[in-house]
Amino acid sequence: MIKLQGLTKTYETPAGAFPALKGIDLDIGAGELVAVVGKSGSGKSTLLHMVGGIDRPSSGSVEVGGGAIQNLTENQLAAWRGRSVGIVFQFFQLLPTLTVAENVMLPMDFCKTVPARARRRRALDLLARVDVAEQADKLPSTLSGGQQQRAAIARALANDPPIILADEPTGNLDSETGAAIFRLFGDLARDGKTVVVVTHERDSISHADRTVTLADGRVA
Amino acid sequence: MAPRWRKALRDFWQERTRTVLVVLAITLGIAGFTAVLSSYAVLTRELDRGYLATNPASASLKTDPIDDKLVASILSGHGVSDAEPRRVVSGRIQLGPMEWRNLTLFVVKDYGNIRVSKLVPEQGPWPPAAGEILIERDAFQVARTSIGKDVTVRTTHGKEQTLRVAGRVHDVGQAQARMENVVYGYINLETLARLGEEPYLDQLKILVAENRFDEQHIRSVAADLRKVLESEGHPVSRIDIPQPGKHPHSDLMGVLLLGMASFGVFVLLLSGILVVNLLTAMMATQVRQIGVMKAIGATRGQIAGIYLSQSALLGAAAIFVAVPAGILGSHALCRAMGVFLNFDIQSFAAPVWVYLLVAAVGLLVPLLSAAYPVWKGSGVSVREALSDFGVSAGALRVGALDRALAGVRGLARPLLLAIRNSFRRRARLVLTLLTLAAGGLFFLTALNVRASLIQTLDRLFRSKKFDLTVGFGTMVPADPIERAIRKTPGILRSEGWITTEGVFSGPGDTPAVESRSGGGPHAAGATGGGPHEGSSETGGRFAVVALPAETKALALEIVKGRGLAPGDEDGIVVNNALAAKVPGLKVGAPIFFRMGPAQTSWRVVGIAREPFSPAVAYVPLRFFEERGHTGVVNNVRLALDRTDRASIQRVKEDLEKNLEEENVRAVSSTSKADSRFSFDQHMLMIYVFLIVVSCLLGGVGGLGLMTTMSLNVLERRREMGILRAIGASPRVVWLIVIAEGLVIGALSWALAALAAWPVSKLLGNILVRLAFKGGLDFVFETRGLFLWLAVSVLLAAASSFLPAWHASRRSVREAISYE
Asked: Which of A49, A79, A95 sits opposite B297 (nearest CB)?
């Protein structure tokens, strides 16, 4: 499902070139729940950004679902992301002026994957799946952190993407809620989704099918 | 509604205070634009419609007595569809025991059958009987009388006679009596006879049969008619051809409204700056949201669409409020212009194109203003957006200005902070300064233009070394006049002049540029009248003033060549308005024109500057003396020892009594103050216009500053929380924000002050040139600087007050938790 070959990423900083990734080769299969771990600055988030088409590699290739994505234009990438990848952020990043349900409907709105009339129904179904259906018409700020993250996962599933990428999804949650979120990811993987989770929490690794450890931009 | 559009709406609701400010600013611009545009459409339509409804004459030919047979002969062919004889008689109307005002009497033979240049009866019996006079509605206040009262009237050749004011008429084509300080009266032939004048009509008003709006055709018909009349023994002394189908003041009104519309658009553009500020700030605070939307599949176009729709919403909201307000404003403006130009408005309905244009402009301005910040903001990459901390940007960069700011010492720390804070968002600062400074600039310009107008008029009137002009309407011997003057106390000096009319019309005359300047029935002859004095509907006509070469009554400002000298025989001094009519006119060049039937040739010895004056030629009195007019004049200029109103009135009364004793009749007496009043009335329009514009711009500027301060406060909530956390009281936070506003206010003042000189000069010259074909003696009104400084400080303090209050009331916890 995901194939990284000779992937490098170097950032130009005022202090000089900073190599964040140094020749990563990685294959992740469909339905796998992979935990990417490593110290701060090891390149975990950069790796996730490459897989999600959020950033472009300096060299090497990123193939997702059989196609290379590094040569797509920004707009093609955006459309691809909307349909192929669901992203979950550490700080949930729900849009504060939209209700929870509307947040979930937003990717469908952008990508037009679901007919307009069916979008709310699907959003409610997804929210029910992650156990926050009763919060559907509330604004995100009225929800707890765990509830917000569940809603964010529902949003990531909106267009039924084959891949879910999560960047420190439990970093802002207590351990119990974090564990529940990981159980949810496990369920998604069992349903056939490929789930890549960047985390620095050792406890979370137990939920993963496989752990990829990064150190100084390389797979350790 | 799709979630993204809901987001657009709710984001605005969240930013409602700033949104309201920006909508208000755009509303001001659109309302002003709507008011002026609608007024332009309504007034031009109504003015021309009202004017055309009177069936205005295509041309007027002045000849000797016209009888019915002659009219019938003219109507039998010659390309004329209708013709009507009239007469215009000059005279005076008594306002007080010895106070008279100039009177223009229009004589109509049959009021029941007016077909050309119709009058609109408004009140009183119609037609007027013998011994009755109708007065033009705008002239009642000049005449200080009312319907049913008796007025005493005296014409040039007639006797003093009491007439009853029978009614009120509206003469659409006349210049406003108030502005011209003259009374328009309408009488029949019997009344004219009672006034002691020969009861005949000598002016033929014609309507051309075809191509009514083709000026060339009208000229050709009038020229043919002239030949016909002259072949039948009726010499034609004057032909007037007004601009076909156009009210005499439609051009002036067009210039005024066009000027207002330009500034309406300018205000609208300035309000667009506020949209730029708001959208830039909004994009900056929403950069992470933009990143998230991109991460979940939004394209740049979709994101730009959200924020552009917000701009369109701003415009739509503003249009919703502004159009009704603008239409109301248009009604008020139309009414004011109707009163000002003395015409009625049948319908205030603005045409559909006004609404469409306003809607298009109202939507486009915010959209175009937002285009750059939105496109730039929506172009941020997901990675950049997600790594952005949203509102923390704006730290001092390290440029020369930053180092200079960092070097400022010796001020209280909060004030230093306020000064440095002012420069953090440079682009926003510049845009805010622009809007505020524009208000100041126009305010200062208004004051400077006003001062310059006064200075220019002062200078013009200083050149006139006389305080009173007494006109006789015809040539009269100078001796009895001098005797009357000697018997009249209070007169220091007198000088007899001959004022007549010159025209570039015939073969052999100097070719002149055709131009119209105001129009209307303004008497020819430089008798010290208003700005339209001596102007005519035909561009080739001008006043000729014959005066002693060694005159002490006039000190012309000669800009080229010299003034008249005692030895001059064919020397002529032309003023700048006349020089402008003759392309390439130079000192030493010959100039040819007609005075009456005779062609005259002259040599230009000098060009005089007379701002706001119509075209005038100054020639030696000797020219007339050598042609049989020895010892006669048709007007006299008097310098008085006291120039207050009462003293001038006393001199007028005494002199007229003494002239009567000498069997000389004065038909007009105009003081310098009367002439000045008329000028001042015309200038007032420009001044009021500039003040209104500066108030509008000041309003937009104030709203702009309020938006800026509120955005600054929004972005620095966390900093303010930190300030509070380390011991700053709410009052100190409040003061820092207010001081920041004051710094911006002071900077805008400095900018306006710097630009005021060149802009005032340029704008003043353009406005005066457009409206009066003259230039300005520029004066910088320094008091304006202090006045605008006070306004800027007050405006800045008022605009910063609310944001400062909100900032100071926020709790430390709220402030530092803001992301």
From this structure: A79
**Taking a C-beta distance cutoff of 8 angstroms, is the pair B690, B256 a contact?**
no
**Which has more pLDDT, B775 or B310?**
B310
Residue A128, chain B, CB below 8 Å: the answer is no
Cα A105-A109-A115 angle, rounded to 5 deg: 90
- How close does chain B come to A180, measured CA to CA in Å? 23
**Strand bridging mode B100-108 / B183-187:** parallel
Residue-wise pLDDT for A151-168, tens only, equals: 999 999 999 999 999 988
**C-alpha distance from A88 to closest chain B C-alpha (Å):** 10
Of the partner residues A74, A83, A97, the one whose CB lies closest to the CB of residue B297? A83
Count of residues in chain A: 220
What whole-number distance in Å separates Cα of residue A22 and Cα of residue B314? 49
Torsions phi, psi of B89, nearest 5? -120, 135
Secondary structure of B27-55 in HEC code, one letter for each residue: HHHHHHHHHHHHHHHHHHHHHHHHHHHCC
CB contacts under 8 A, A 12-71 vs B, are 49, 52, 54-55
Question: How confident is the model over A72-86, as pLDDT tens digits?
Answer: 888 888 888 888 899
Instruction: Specify the CATH class of A30-57+71-219 in words.
Output: alpha beta
Average pLDDT on B671-693 reads: 75
What pTM did the predictor assign?
A: 0.69
CA–CA separation, B229 and B101 (whole Å) = 35
Q: Does position B774 have pLDDT exceeding 80, yes or no?
A: no
Among candidate residues B328, B439, B446, B444, the one with its CA nearest the CA of residue B699: B439
What local confidence, expressed as pLDDT, does residue B507 receive?
Answer: 58
What are the domain boundaries of chain A?
Answer: 30-57+71-219
Residue with tokens 């999804």: A169
Between CA B377 and CA B282 the distance in angstroms is: 9
**B296 and A82 in contact by Cβ < 8 A?**
yes
Report CB contact under 8 Å: B386, A156: no
Contact between chains at A158 and B295 (C-beta distance less than 8 A):
no
Peptide bond connecting B3 to the previous residue in cis, omega within 30 degrees of 0 = no
